[in-house]
Amino acid sequence: MGKFELETAPPSEELLAIAKQELRETPEVRAAAVEELRKLVEAATDLCYPTDEEFLIIFLRPTKFYAESALKLMRNIAEFNKTYKETLFNLMPADVQNVFIEHNIINILTNRDQHGRRMMVVNMGETWDPKAVSEEHIFRVLYTIHKLAVLEPATQISGVVVIYDFKGMGMKHVRSMSPGGAKRLLTFIQEASPLRVKGIHFINQPMLFSMVWSLFKPFVQEKLNKRMFFHGDKLSKLHEHVHKECLPSNYGGTLPALDYGGKQWYPVAEQHLDFIKKWNSCGFK
């Protein structure tokens, strides 16, 4: 499956064609939107965001190059960071290094799906020890990963797919989740992240998953609800959305079984500390 690396190169012609079709992105639209957003940010006396083109594009792509919508997203992010300041303030990869390296909870696949989307697996069952890794720890890791993902033009354009694997989930896991944690995660996904979430897939849910879903359901908006899929142990249903050729054998795919985790790809985070510091500087003045 290859070594994990961030793909920070400019988008290919194929990707730009997708961006034109789905995001209205053309050189002319892009230039005008960047200039308009730059002026809006500079005029917003309460906001602190870099205004270089590469950084502004992170917010313009998910809002289809409507500058005012991009500014609203930036405000949402600033508000989110303010609300959860104790959890997120100046969060660096080193702060969650032990979760990446010592616990097999979150994994990023080295390859993309058939639509070019970045894929992430979150293990919420047998490999998660709630005594060692709290709900907040998991969120801090997810937030750190998103800072890396927004660096990838291919991910900005094509989006992400998340697979939640509940194999082996028990009451100790259910008791470790809370309505507050559910609200924080869904507010982030739906309002305060520039990533295009194209699909969230739940697999291997046990009977008591209904207790978990009852925490999350009140906060799920219609747009995201249409992109959530519950497959149970029927991996063939997952393959209707993510082709077998793109998945490891662990998930019924034709690729080799996963033999790596955060320990192997955590060093990538350390290679982009300057950008992470730049991101951490954003928000309200």
UniProtKB/TrEMBL annotation:
Entry-linked SUPFAM superfamilies: CRAL/TRIO domain, CRAL/TRIO N-terminal domain
A GO MF term: phosphatidylinositol bisphosphate binding
UniProt domain CRAL-TRIO: residue ranges: 96-259
SMART domains per UniProt: CRAL_TRIO_N, SEC14
CDD domains, per the entry: SEC14
The protein, known as: CRAL-TRIO domain-containing protein
One GO cellular component term: membrane
